[in-house]
């Protein structure tokens, strides 16, 4: 065995790294004999860099269960994501101690209601023997039913955080999302609809860390309270933000209270089922492992930032067309720069919508006549990859300009552009026409 290999093994043994060894190749659904289905899916896991081990492609076996398979619209459903067999095992001969693993993850919703449910588990595990398989673990979270009909639940990405001398993460992502459906709930119309929803930039952190909270379908302009929850009770963690004109929110909550197990957002100063969203699962991670004699623990931290965008300008001049001929009036969008420094698993979406183009004497060109061909570029080293929206009409209903997907690690810097073309009818009255293109980043 070479010196480099011995060094890597010593590091892995010292740190108790959640390094990986393949337990099997990728596979498709493998339903169990009873509901909910136990499924298998191909998984790509990235061990901590300090372990010196390359990424591993293996198979995860998992199942999803719910506390209510026939909810009404407006009900809150508790979801449990159990990883029966992780796509990894302990690759070193040194045993790992009990209660060092804290799992977090996502459950993917499909059918009549889409999105992702943040789930988290306790810091609890049996000891892992040298070269032994990592144990099964469970994570829980909740979502609010917004639409009647069948809602499917599939296992999503998950992360194993270990606290053993060092704080280390092993993110595992679904190779071909979505994973097979494990559970289905059938919702009925309960006569009360609350479509507010929130998601977290990360599902865990140390005391004092900040978590990014984003949400949709709040009352435009409303003051929104962000709060920690422990069961039905609020904790000492509080923050505020304001819903924008589209009802979206984006704010940060500093979590100091070790009792916090979830995050909620609600309009006003007091929780209301009709004007709130959540809780989204969150775990406060503490490292209580005693240090060996003669050791020193060295701590550092990476502070989460924000999701933001800037524009190169606020005016686009399209080329003129001739009266009687009409045709396409073309130009280029002012370049948009998106910076995602939040950390965590959440991607982003940049959308746009345009008003009718007003001209002289009440003349107008309909908003649907404006089309675009989006392009985007990703700065080297960014964890996420920017995806341009589809070419087509923008219109008053709006369209996607660019986006990045959710993932085990996201973020980076991106530039977004688009070729614009306004299809001007042949005998549109001469004069200047103007419309307002509004871009929204969520």
Second rung of CATH, namely the architecture of the largest domain: Sandwich
| CATH fold category name of the largest domain | Immunoglobulin-like
Number of helices: 1
Distance between the termini: 51 Å
Radius of gyration from CA coordinates: 25 Å
Give a quick account of the main beta sheet: strands, pairing sense, barrel closure.
9 strands, antiparallel
What is the mean predicted local confidence, pLDDT? 84
Which parts are unreliable, with pLDDT below 50 for 5 consecutive residues or more?
A: 1-34
Structural class, by secondary structure, is mainly beta
Report the strand count: 30
CATH class division of the largest domain: Mainly Beta
Helix content: under 10%
| Shape category | elongated
Number of domains: 3
Portion in beta strands: over 45%
Keywords: Signal
Protein name: Beta-xylosidase
Signal peptide: 1-29
Biased composition (Low complexity): 388-399
């Amino acid at each position: 065995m070479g010196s480099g290999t011995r060094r890597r093994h010593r590091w892995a043994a010292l740190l108790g790294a959640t390094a990986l060894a393949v337990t099997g190749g990728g596979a498709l659904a493998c339903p169990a004999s009873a509901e909910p289905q136990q499924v298998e899916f191909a998984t790509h896991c990235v061990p901590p860099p300090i372990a010196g081990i390359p990424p591993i492609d293996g198979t995860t076996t998992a199942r999803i269960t719910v506390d209510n398979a026939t909810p009404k619209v407006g009900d809150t459903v508790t979801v449990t994501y159990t990883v029966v067999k992780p796509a990894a095992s302990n690759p070193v001969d040194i045993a790992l101690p009990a209660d060092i693993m804290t799992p977090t993850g996502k459950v993917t919703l499909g059918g009549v209601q889409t999105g992702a449910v943040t789930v988290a588990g306790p810091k609890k595990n049996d000891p892992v023997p040298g070269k032994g398989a990592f144990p099964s673990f469970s994570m829980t979270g909740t979502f609010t039913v917004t639409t009647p009909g069948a809602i499917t639940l599939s296992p999503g990405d998950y992360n194993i955080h270990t606290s053993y001398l060092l704080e280390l993460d092993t993110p595992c992502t679904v190779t071909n999302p979505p994973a097979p459906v494990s559970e289905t709930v059938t919702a009925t119309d309960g006569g009360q609809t609350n479509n507010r929803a929130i998601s977290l930039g990360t599902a865990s952190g140390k005391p004092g860390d900040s978590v990014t909270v984003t949400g949709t379908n709040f009352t435009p302009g409303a003051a929104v309270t962000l709060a920690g929850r422990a069961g039905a009770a609020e904790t000492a963690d509080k923050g505020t933000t304001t819903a924008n004109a589209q009802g979206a929110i984006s704010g940060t909550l500093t979590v100091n209270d070790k009792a916090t197990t979830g995050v909620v957002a609600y309009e006003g100063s007091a929780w209301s089922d009709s004007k709130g969203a959540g809780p989204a699962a969150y775990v406060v991670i503490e490292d209580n492992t005693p240090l060996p004699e003669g050791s020193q623990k060295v701590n550092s931290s990476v502070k989460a930032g924000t999701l933001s965008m800037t524009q190169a300008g606020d005016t686009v001049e399209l080329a003129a067309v001739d009266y009687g001929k009409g045709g396409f009036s073309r130009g280029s969008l002012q370049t948009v720069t998106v910076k995602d420094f939040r950390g965590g698993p959440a991607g982003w979406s940049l959308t746009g919508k345009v008003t009718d183009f007003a001209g002289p004497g009440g003349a107008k060109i309909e908003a649907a006549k404006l089309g675009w061909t989006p392009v985007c570029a990703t700065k080297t080293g960014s964890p996420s990859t920017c995806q341009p929206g589809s070419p087509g009409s923008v219109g008053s209903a709006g369209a996607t300009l660019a986006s990045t997907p959710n993932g085990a690690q996201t973020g980076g810097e991106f530039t977004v552009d688009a070729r614009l073309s306004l299809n001007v009818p042949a005998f549109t009255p001469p004069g200047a026409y103007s419309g307002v293109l509004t871009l929204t980043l969520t």
